[in-house]
Description:
Blueprint: H1 14-32, E1 69-73, E2 79-80, E3 83-84, H2 87-96, E4 101-103, E5 106-108, E6 114-116, E7 122-124, E8 142-146, H3 164-181, E9 188-190, H4 191-194, H5 206-218
Amino acid sequence: MCLERPGGNGADGPGKRRRITVAAALSLALVVAGYGVVKHGRHKIVPTHPIPPVVSGPRGPIYPDPPGILLHHSDTPASAHGVKFDAAALDRIAAQRGFSVKFEGKVYHISYHYIILPDGTVQKGRPDHCQGAHCPKYNNWLGICLIGDFQPPNKRWWPTQPTDQQKKSLVTLCESLMSQYHISPENVKRHRDVHLTWCPGNRFPYDAIIQELRTYSLQHPETRTGAHTAPMVAQTTGNSTSVPNQ
Length: 246
């Protein structure tokens, strides 16, 4: 397309006409692309189809943080008949007992959130924000289970008390979780403190563990902000349901 004013050469000569031609072509291209006309001079582009604003919404469900930590022993040996007791073994046992829960599209059976092996290895169980199945009324607390039988009389199972590696890993794990979820040392309890049971056994060095956590808390104010009390919600799946008060 060529837009040309009648007239002589001078200021309205071929150079002027070429500039008008380019501007007109650009206007046509922008109209085809969904924009308005280019206004000559300042070349202001006016969109004929306004671009909708980007609306950002929640990326997923928001779960309340766990308000505390509950300590357990597995009441098993480290291994028996060639079978190693670890997170996978406890998951199989829990599946047979019907401790199943669906959380964010995945099914979990294991009752605890963390498992600590005799060599100090920490294994993950359920996600932190998934309700556990380790104690009535406290399944929204994080359940940590140490492999072993720490309650006399022992059945000749090993370990009969937490190993040094287990104790070190337990303290480190608790410190990390306390800082992450603002959990005070007063909310790190034994299973037996809140339920009628011997767990985690008389050989579990609770006083020494808590003293280390209190020392840590004095240097980390984020662990002294109080506990959360909102319950967690988990979804059932198939014929298996979560066990909120196991």
